[in-house]
Amino acid sequence: MCGIVGFTGTREAAPVLIDGLRRLEYRGYDSAGVAVSDGGTVNMAKVKGYVKNLSEITHDGADLKGRIGIGHTRWATHGAPNDVNAHPHLSSDGRFAVVHNGIIENYALLRQELTGRGYKFASDTDTEVVAHLLELYYDGDAKRAVMRTAARLEGSYSLGVLCSDGRLFAMREQSPLILGLGVGENYFASDVAALVPHTKNVIYLDDGEFAELTPDSVTVYDVLGRAVEKPVSRVTWDVEAAEKGGYEHFMLKEIMEQPACFKATVEPRIKDGRIVFENFDLTDEELHGINRVIITACGSASYAGQVGRYIMEELCRIPVSVELASELRYRNPIIDKHTMLIVISQSGETADTIAAMRECKARGARVLAIVNVVGSTIAKLADHVIYTWAGPEIAVATTKGYTTQVAVLDMLAIYLADRLGLMEKERYDRLVDALHAMPGQIQRAIDLNRNIGRLAKKFCRHNAIYFIGRNLDYAVCMEGALKLKEISYIFAEAYAAGELKHGTIALVEEGSLVIALACYEPLFDKTMSNIEEVKARGAEVLAVALEGSRKILSKADDVIFVPRTEPVFNPIAQVVPLQLFAYYVARERGCDIDKPKNLAKSVTVE
Ligand code: BG6
Question: Are residues 222 and 300 in the same domain?
Fold first, then answer.
């Protein structure tokens, strides 16, 4: 996912822009650049590689004079990562510089038209068409050129536009762009993390809107160029929230933050012992009109959905399926107004998830989004939004994002079951009490596994690890396996324990490592049999079991204990040691834990 920053004020822009880009590095990128101006000329530097390379060639921006500017970190979509394809891109006359996040779907046609008009392209990017369109439409009024250019673009984009006359614009269409309001200076960025060091007062642009920024003013316009009033939001977290806070990696910090994030997500939604949602107000008729639920997401978010599916079916007695967004969007799904689509996404910007959501919305589904980023594309497209309040998640491999997603799904299942008249008050109250107790249980899951580094050291040389479990345990296996794959690069796969005998057990041999989750007590004995099956073939078994489950010690070679919680909440406690196990295994293997190879924090392109 590309990063965008913009600045206008009375101090030199380049150092501010470069610092802003550093705060967006976690999103994954392959090149970086800035362009600045004081009115008159545009000074630009861009380079393949990292922000530190950009800083080196510009002496941290000191070589670039100008108090207005734009900056960019690029995650290549069209055109290889190299200096030429890096952003910003200039118009042929050098008057405009542009940075872009998203995809201009009709760039090929535009490029053909502009080439036919004599424009020369320097890069292979879709973005460069914007720079030349601005030049084509410029007649002395940069704002009009911006509007006419926007009218030609199709696709998703957030754009920063710098004009050599000193005017600065930000444009949003289906890709996040946030304005930061300072004192004597103003900013924009694709992510609040780049704004928080300067201001907590922000404005979230909506699709179709654009803004002009000066050091003393920020004006937002609608697609017709009419000024619109926008609410100013207050960012609730500090700069250090997006810093490591003394931990070696963001991932470890975010694992340790989970008790607090669970509490922040749940407590504000329990009022006088009742679960309430701020933006999910179905009437009884609408609620009873839902005859199926589809949960769609990618990666870990889809595995949170797998946990939610078991719980929602169990409590709400309504058919629930989990569909990978990249499959659902192309499957010509059978959906109508009686379908509720639950979209789960930490970033709110994952391209496949957005596309699946649009597909289902177009077919009449009612859409509820569970997202962690306020003002994100998915949040804006949904009919209802329940935010996870995990704060900024920087590590590419999600942890607190996942557990707070499961927390929301748990609350939602209890809420819906109660609304549907399927839950007695005693059980409702017990579950709400258990929600209050969960932050302590998550902390206990951390405390019980302070020595998990020992197990990581013992098992970090395996090149294949099998996770097995049943029901909720199986759902957690999926996330445990993905965590290990993502950051330690060990082949790991989750298998329904009952499936072993249908093929996978052929892979189990002397010394194979099998991680068996045995917390779902109704099927504990079945899982114990599976442990015996793999042991009989020579496997070593690391079990995950509830505190006090003594029987497991008779079969498993090693055991990770987790606190006994209300059964439907077990997955939240169970996943914590699996996160820690993956973290310490990756650390033993010397992997780049916060920025695993080939992965990005949010895949905003297909
Ligand atoms: C992947 C991330 O790129 O996208 C995963 O590495 C994440 O951690 C997945 O689960 C989906 O992202 P999001 O933002 O839609 O939850």
Answer: no
